[in-house]
Specification:
The protein is α/β, with parallel strands linked by helices and 471 residues long. It has 15 helices and 23 strands. Strand 10, helix 9 and strand 11 form a beta-alpha-beta unit.
């Protein structure tokens, strides 16, 4: 835990009693403040009380007594309308901040020499964050992983020389962190997302760009330039501090770009070195090449050399439920991509394999499978499950051979049998549902766990490392 001392002796309102909110309250109490917690959900309030925290109905409170309102990132700050606690705090002249802000203020207060690396973007930030932390750790550096992935930031180990915090940040977290001042920051990409919380794509991009707003002259900015919003942000940063551009399939003058699974490090238009991603199953696909390019640039900013980075890339296991290679049965590879809860995410997986036996369905998102048509020739057969089965059958039509399976266990059995008869070098049974899980599973994690368990019960199935090699 990182004790937060900046509000010692003060009352602080904490709204949202999820993982980050509970960590905030504990850290404030440890640092000498008096945290008063509220959550609109009764179950969350009960959990906070069970943890020994002070819980009170803040809707009836005089907010002038509070030094700050610490808001959970999942609670609306501006759109579609500010939460009632935000309105009350602003009327009382009380600042509204988040847990990441507490981390940075406490770091400045303690004059800590701990480094902070942050990663944001619409897609790929979890993989890039985990990979960056892994690269540092595999090179013998102390790295603490948290934020929007893993632990809440204030539950990480305390500040210490030689420690680097590697943090994934959502746009919601950035919007609550006016003092955000990392030593290196990466913005991977921007596509329309969370517009219900930010209003417009322009506002969403503006908030994402704030990750660079307080960088010092020695800091490094890493930014993907494969989309127009990010290219515009990169141009706006030109000449302010070191900007490392990352791209897939297009050369950059300064930064890292990926070409056919090879990372090329560039400086002033000159190639400084190459790093090979071939054979690293956890980094398969062009979207993962972008993630790897960003992690490479961030690792270089922290002093790692290319051989150390190559070694770390080779040993990266990937993330569970994100193109997770879980088993082989003969030459058939089984891949758990349960995290793909929409068509765009499923498209990343479909682009990464050939001869695919695709398990798809669940509770459909708007548009269903729209946009996936270019990948249809790669699909040997589709196995439809869940509520979306009938609608997806209509969308696939005669373009993709498909069969109604209803449940995940039936789909795995059918796909495994069909894939075993394939003459392809590496047929792939791919769970990439393009749907939410809620019709049959509580969340995508439980759906992915179920897939893994079903696969491992197949005769002859052998578990593999996430790099795709037999364990």
């Amino acid at each position: 835990m990182i004790p937060v001392t900046i509000f010692a002796g003060c009352d602080v309102a904490v709204v949202g009693a999820g993982m980050s909110g509970l960590a905030v309250a504990r850290s404030l109490e440890e640092g000498g403040a008096r945290a008063v917690v509220w959550d609109d959900k009764e179950s969350a309030r009960a959990e906070a009380e069970a943890a020994g925290l002070t819980v009170a109905d803040l809707s009836a409170a005089d907010f002038k007594r509070f030094a700050a309102l610490v808001l959970a990132p999942g609670i609306p700050l501006t759109h579609p309308a500010p939460h009632w606690s935000v309105v009350a705090a602003r009327r009382a002249g009380v600042e509204v901040i988040g847990d990441i802000e507490l981390l940075f203020r406490e770091r400045a207060q303690q004059k800590s020499k701990s480094e902070v690396v942050v990663i944001t973007g619409t897609n790929g930030k979890s993989t890039t964050t985990a990979l960056t932390a892994h690269l540092l750790g595999s090179a013998g550096r102390r790295a603490a992983l948290g934020g929007n992935i893993g632990k809440a930031v204030l539950d990480l180990e305390p500040f210490a020389d030689g420690l680097t915090y590697v943090l994934e940040l959502s746009s919601f977290q950035i919007d609550l962190t006016p003092s955000l001042a990392p030593d290196a920051a990466a913005l991977l990409n921007i596509t329309p997302d969370h517009l219900d919380r930010h209003g417009t794509l322009q506002d969403y991009a503006r908030i994402k760009a704030q990750v660079f707003g307080n960088l010092g002259p020695e800091a490094t900015a890493v930014i993907g330039v494969d989309d127009e919003p990010c290219r515009a942000i990169a141009e706006s940063l030109r000449g302010i501090f070191a900007v490392k551009r990352i791209a897939v399939g297009r050369a950059v003058q300064n930064g890292v770009w990926a070409s056919d699974g090879v990372l090329l490090e560039m400086e002033g238009g000159r190639e400084m070195g190459r790093t090979d991603l071939a054979g690293i199953g956890s980094l398969r696909g062009a979207h993962n090449w972008q993630n790897a390019a960003a992690a490479y640039a961030l690792a270089r900013s922290q002093g790692l050399d290319a051989p150390a980075i190559q070694q770390g890339l080779n040993s990266f296991a990937g993330l569970a439920h994100r193109m997770e290679q879980v088993a082989r049965r003969g030459n058939v590879l089984f891949v758990n991509d349960s995290k793909a809860t929409n068509a765009d995410a499923a498209g990343k997986a479909l682009a990464s394999f050939d001869d695919i036996y695709w398990i798809v369905g669940g509770r459909a998102k708007e548009g269903g499978l729209s946009g996936l048509e270019p990948f249809f020739p790669k699909i040997a057969r589709a196995y439809l499950i869940g509520e979306a089965a009938d609608a997806f059958a209509r969308q696939l039509g005669g373009a993709v051979d498909h069969v109604h399976c209803g449940t995940l266990d039936r789909a795995v059995a059918a796909a495994a049998a069909d894939a075993a008869r394939s003459r392809a070098k590496e047929p792939v049974v791919l769970l990439s549902p393009a749907c939410a899980s809620y019709d049959q599973f509580d969340n995508f994690t439980k759906r992915g766990d179920a897939f893994r368990d079903i696969v491992m019960r197949l005769d002859g199935a052998q578990s593999v490392s996430r790099q795709g090699r037999a364990a």
